C-alpha cells in the first residue's frame, strides 16, 4: 500500500510539473500606446492560455530603463523600441527583436497654443525646454535627429525627461517644458483638453517619412540572444500570444480595445483615451513581422548623432528574427 501511495504521489508530482506554467519576467518602458498589444494580450489572457506565468514590471520612466533591466538580467523579455537593439550591438551586446508591435513611430512634437516655435523655421526651437520620456529613449533620438537635420545641436535646447501619459501632459500644462515629444495617449490628451497643438506628427506614414525619411519601426518584444537560445519554447509561447493580440486588435474597434484594459492603464478620461487609440491604430503591426528595409531608417537616425553607432559596423540581420512569428503564423493556420 505504501509503495502504491508513493508511486501515485510521484505520478501526480510529474503530472503537475508537466502542466506547470513557464515563468517569464516581462518589463515595459511605459504604457504609451506603441506598447498597447502587450497589455491587450495580457488582459485577454493570451499569455496564460499559452501556459505562461508572466510577471510584469512597468518602468514608467521610459524604454531606456527597461533596456538596463534586460542587460542587468533582472528581466527576461523587454517591451521596448527596436532602435535599442542597434544601440546594444554598437556596445558589443546582442539583443534581438522577435515580435514587432508598432510598425511606425507614433511620436509627435507638441507645444502650447501660443508657442512661437515654428517647424518651418527650425531655429525658433533655440532656448526651449523640450520634454521627452527619458534620456536615451526614442523620443530623445527624435529631437536630437531633428536638431541634427537642421544644423542645430542639443546645446541649443534643454532636454528634460518627463515620462509619458498624464505626467508628460502635466509637465506641458504646468510650464515645466515648452515643447513635448511624446506618444499617444499624451498627444491626443494635449489636443482634446485644449492645452496645446501638434506641431510635428510622425504617427502617419507621411509624417514619419517627413521626419525620418522613411517608416520608423518602434515597439517590439526583444530579449538577449542568450535567453532566446536557452528558452526558445518560452519565446515561442510569448510570440504566439502577442501575435494573437495583434490579430485581435486589427479586428476590433478602439472602443472594444479599451474595454479590455484595466482602469489603471487608461490615462485621462475614457472617451479621450478611446480617441487616442483610434489615432494610434495605424501604427500597429498586423502580423508581428519585421520588414528589413524599414530597419535601415532607425540605423540612419542613430548614426547621425550617436557616436558609438556611427563608428560601429552594424549587422541589422542579427538585430531581429522573424522565425518565431512565422512559426506562430503556421500554428494559427493549422
Automatic annotation (TrEMBL):
Predominant location: periplasm
Keyword presence, Transcription: no
Alphabetical UniProt keywords: Signal
Pfam families: NMT1_2
Signal peptide as annotated in the record: 1-20
Subcellular location: Periplasm
GO CC aspect terms: periplasmic space
Transmembrane segments: none
Keyword Signal applies: yes
Gene Ontology annotations of biological process type: alkanesulfonate transmembrane transport
Family: Belongs to the bacterial solute-binding protein SsuA/TauA family.
Protein name: Amino acid ABC transporter
Organism: Rhizobium mesoamericanum STM3625
Amino acid at each position: 500500500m505504501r509503495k502504491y501511495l508513493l508511486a501515485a504521489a510521484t505520478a501526480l508530482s510529474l503530472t503537475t510539473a508537466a502542466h506547470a506554467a513557464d515563468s517569464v519576467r516581462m518589463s515595459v518602458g511605459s504604457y504609451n500606446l506603441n506598447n498597447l498589444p502587450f497589455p491587450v494580450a495580457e488582459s485577454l489572457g493570451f499569455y496564460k492560455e499559452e501556459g505562461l506565468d508572466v510577471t510584469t514590471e512597468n518602468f514608467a520612466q521610459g524604454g531606456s530603463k527597461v533596456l538596463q533591466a534586460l542587460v542587468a538580467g533582472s528581466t527576461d523579455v523587454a517591451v521596448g523600441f527596436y532602435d535599442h537593439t542597434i544601440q546594444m550591438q554598437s556596445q558589443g551586446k546582442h539583443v534581438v527583436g522577435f515580435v514587432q508591435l508598432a510598425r511606425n513611430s507614433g511620436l509627435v512634437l507638441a507645444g502650447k497654443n501660443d508657442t512661437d516655435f515654428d517647424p518651418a523655421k527650425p531655429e525658433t526651437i533655440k532656448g526651449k525646454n523640450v520634454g521627452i520620456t527619458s534620456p536615451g529613449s526614442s523620443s530623445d533620438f527624435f529631437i536630437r535627429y531633428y536638431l541634427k537635420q537642421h544644423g542645430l545641436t542639443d546645446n541649443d535646447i534643454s532636454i528634460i525627461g518627463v515620462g509619458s501619459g498624464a505626467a508628460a501632459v502635466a509637465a506641458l500644462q504646468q510650464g515645466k517644458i515648452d515643447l513635448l515629444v511624446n506618444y499617444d495617449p499624451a498627444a491626443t490628451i494635449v489636443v482634446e483638453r485644449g492645452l496645446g497643438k501638434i506641431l510635428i506628427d510622425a504617427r502617419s506614414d507621411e509624417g514619419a517619412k517627413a521626419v525620418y525619411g522613411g517608416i520608423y519601426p518602434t515597439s517590439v518584444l526583444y530579449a538577449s540572444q542568450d535567453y532566446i537560445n536557452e528558452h526558445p519554447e518560452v519565446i515561442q509561447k510569448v510570440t504566439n500570444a502577442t501575435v494573437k493580440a495583434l490579430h485581435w486588435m486589427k479586428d476590433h474597434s478602439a472602443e472594444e480595445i479599451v474595454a479590455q484594459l484595466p482602469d489603471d492603464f487608461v490615462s485621462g478620461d475614457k472617451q479621450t483615451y478611446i480617441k487616442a487609440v483610434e489615432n494610434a491604430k495605424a501604427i500597429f503591426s498586423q502580423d508581428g513581422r519585421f520588414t528589413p528595409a524599414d530597419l535601415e531608417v532607425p540605423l540612419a537616425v542613430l548614426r547621425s548623432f550617436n557616436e558609438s553607432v556611427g563608428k560601429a559596423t552594424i549587422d541589422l540581420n542579427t538585430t531581429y528574427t522573424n522565425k518565431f512569428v512565422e512559426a506562430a503564423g503556421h500554428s494559427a493556420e493549422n
